[in-house]
Amino acid sequence: MPERLWRAAAKLAEEHGLNPVAAPLRLDYYSLKRWVEEGRGQRRSAAPSPAFIEVRPLAPAAAGTVLELEKPGGSKMTLRLSSALDVGALVEAFWRSGT
C-alpha cells in the first residue's frame, strides 16, 4: 500500500482507534499501529514481525486440495492442485514476495 495511504489510515486511527480503522479497511492491526507510533514520533522498527506462523505439512497436499493465501495488503494466491504436490516452496515464495 502506498505510504500516503498508510499515513492517512494512521491519522484516522489516532482519532477513531486502531481496530475501528484496521478491521473495515482489512489492514494488519500491528502494521497500522507501527504507522501510528511513527506519526507520534516513536521509532518504527526496522524489521516488522511476521503476521503469520509457518506451518509445514507432514505430507504433500493431496489432489483436489485448494489453498488460498491473502496478505494484509491485498495480494492473493489460490492453488488448485490436480496432483499431489509439496506446496511449501510456493507458499514461502508468495509470503516473501514484495507485492
Structure in a nutshell:
With 99 residues, the protein is mostly helical. 42% of the residues lie in helices and 10% in strands.
H/E series? HHHEEH
**Whole-number average pLDDT?**
78
Overall strand count: 2
Count of alpha/pi helices? 4
CA-atom Rg in angstroms: 17 Å
Strand order of the largest sheet: 1-2
Coarse morphology? elongated
Structural class designation? mainly alpha
Q: What's the story with the biggest beta sheet?
A: 2 strands, antiparallel
Name the helicity range.
40-55%
Percentage of residues in DSSP E strands: 5-15%
Q: Give the CA-CA distance, first to last residue.
A: 9 Å
The stretches of 5 or more residues where confidence is low (pLDDT under 50) are: none
Describe the structure.
The protein is mainly alpha-helical and 99 residues long. Among the domains are: 3-39; 66-96, no CATH class. The protein has helices at 3-16, 18-25, 29-39, 88-96, and strands spanning 66-70, 76-80. Strands 1-2 form a two-stranded antiparallel ribbon. Strand 1 (66-70) and strand 2 form a beta hairpin. The protein is elongated and about 50 Å long.
